[in-house]
Amino acid sequence: MDFLDLLKRAKPSAEPLLTGEWATLVFRPDLGSQQEFIVGVAAAIDGDTEPHLKWLPSLSKLSHLYGEAITASDTRGLFDGAEIAIRASFRKTLNLLDSGSPHLRVVPCGYLATHNIADELTNLLKRQAAPIWGDVQQRDDPMDDDWAYATMIRTIKSLQGNRDPFIPGRSVVIGNKNLQIGLTNGESYGNIVSARYTSFSTIHAHIHSSMLQVNIAHKLSNLQTQPALFVVLPEAKTSTEVATTRKTLELLAEIESAGGNPFSDHDPSAVALKLQAWAASSQ
Amino acid sequence: MFPSVRFPHSLISRGLNSAGRGRVFKGNLPETCLDVTQMIPILASDSYRGFSANLGEALAGAKTAAQPIFIGRVVWPGCHDPEDAVVKLYEPDSCGVANEAIGYVINTLRGVRQPGRGGVLLLSERELPALYANLRDFIDPDTGLAACWITSFEGASRPFRYLRRLSGFSRRQIDAFYGSSFCIRLTTVDHVTGNCDRHEGNFLYEDDLKYLAIDQGCVGGGKYWHTSWPDQNARNELSLLAQANLSGSRLAAWRAAAIMEYEKAQPGWSGIFAEISSVLPGLLSADHIGTILEYMKTRAAGTTFAASCERLI
Questions:
Q1: Closest in B41, B95, B127 to A11, CB measured
Q2: pTM score, whole prediction
Q3: Domain B166-312 belongs to what architecture?
Q4: How close, in Å, is residue A155 to chain B by CA atoms?
Q5: Which helix (H) or strand (E) holds B14?
Q6: Using one digit for the tens of pLDDT, what is the confidence trace for B109-128?
Q7: A13 and B126: CB-CB below 8 Å?
Q8: Contact criterion met (CB below 8 Å) for A195 and A271
Q9: Domains along the sequence of chain A with CATH
Q10: Closest-CA residue to B191 (of B119, B103, B270, B252)
C-alpha cells in the first residue's frame, strides 16, 4: 500500500479548529444492578486547563424509568457534585478522573476534533444518550398558584385603604392541624388557585386540595360562613383554554352547590377586585 | 488490456447501493459518465471527527479475528456535518482495504445492495481509539498512518436496521432470502471476486426482500492473497449456506437460478474490471492489480461457477 500516494489523492476537508479527547459519563443508579446510562460527556481540548462537560439537560426521562425511586433533583445534585470532583481532579487528560461517586464513572473515548466544542458535546450526548435525552421545555413565567397569589397581593396592595386578607406564609395552625390557607377576612377562610395549568387534571386537583384545606379550617373553627375560593381562569385564546375554562366553571358550580363560595374571572385584576370586596365584607 | 468503459452518472452517484434499490447493471452505457473512482473517496484525518462506539465486542468473530472495527464520525466529501461511519482497520501489508474497494465497486456496478457510501480513511496513531487489539500492527511504520476502510453506518437509520444472522431467521425468512435476487446475485459476485468470507454475519437483514452486503475484505480468498497467490478454490459461503439450508429440489432450482445469473452477467465483467483497475492504484502495486484482475477475469469467464457448484455436489 502506497500511503504517500493515497495522501496526495485524499479529498481535502476543512481542518477542525480544536482537537483533544472526549469521554462519556456513565451513570449506574443502582450499584446492585448492571444497568447503566450515559448521562453526560466530557472533553479535554488541547491547550485548555479546564475540561468541558455537558450533562443531560433534563432528567425527566431517566426519572420516569425508575418511578419514585429516582428524583430528578437528587440525581441532579449527584451530577453537580460529580462535576466539582471531575474539575478538581482534571490534569490535562480525561484519564484517571475522579467523579466523586461510585455511581458515576468517566469512560475515555479517545480522539476528538471539532470546530465548536459546545455544539460537538451536545451532538455527542444526543447521539450517545438518545433514548433518555430530553430538551428542557422553555416556558414563559409559570402561571401557577404562586403566580396567582403574588398577583393578588400586588394588585390589592396597590389599591388604597384595603384590609389585608393575606395570611403570612399561607399557613394557619388550628388545633393540631397545620393548614395551607392564604386568605382570611376575619369571618371565613379562603384560598387562591390558578386555572392556567396545561392539564385540567392539575387544576382539578389544586381546586379540590385548596377547598379541602379551607373546609377543614372552617370545621375546626366552627365557622358558619362560606369558605371562599378565588380562581384565575385561562385567557381562553385557544380551544384548549376555552375547554379548560368551561370545565373549571362547571367544577366551581359544583363547589358552590356544595356550600362553597367561589369567585373567578379571566382577568387577574377582576379577581383581585372580588377579593377586595370579600375582604371588606366582614363586620 | 480491458476496454475503457464509463458508467452512467446515475448509477455511480447513486451507487446502486442502499438507495439504489437493487437496480441491475445491464452493460448498455450512455455517453454521459462519471469517473468511478469518485465512488471510493480517499479521506485524510481532517475528515475524521473522532470515535463514537466500539463494534468489535458486538460482532461475533471480529474480536477473535483481531479485526479492529468501530463507529467513528466522518465528514464525507460534499458534506458539512460528520456522520457515523463503520471504520475497519487493516494491516498495511495486507490487501484488505483494496479488497473492500474491489468488492464495493463490483457490488455497486452489479446492483447488490450495500451501505450508501464507502471510502478509505487514513488516520494517525493518535486518532485511533483504544480498542482491545494492539493497533501497532495496523500502523505503517514509515508514515505512521493506518489505512481504514469506511462505510456509512446503516444501522443508525430510522428505524434501526438490526444486524441479524441467518441462524435467527424463521423458515419463511430463510426461504425468502434464498429466493431473493440479492442472494443469487451476491453468490455469483462472490464467486468472481473469490470472496470467501460471506458468512451469515456479512449481510444485513432489513426485511424479507431487502438485504445489504457488508465486508468484502476477503476478496481473492483472504486479505493476504498477494503474499502467495489468490486462492483458486476460495470457498463460496453463500453456496455452502444454501446447500445446508435448502432441500434437494429447491437447492437444484437455486443453483440453476444462480448459474443463469452468472451467465447473464458475463458480458459486463470486462467493463467492470476496467473500472476496478482505476480505483486500485495506491491500494495495490501495479503487479498486484494485474494479478487480482486476471484472477477475477478467469473466474468470471466460462463455466467456472457451474463447476464450483458441481464440486459442492
A1: B41
A2: 0.70
A3: Orthogonal Bundle (1.10)
A4: 53
A5: helix B9-14
A6: 999 999 999 999 999 999 99
A7: no
A8: no
A9: 13-132 (no CATH), 145-280 (3.40.50.10130)
A10: B103
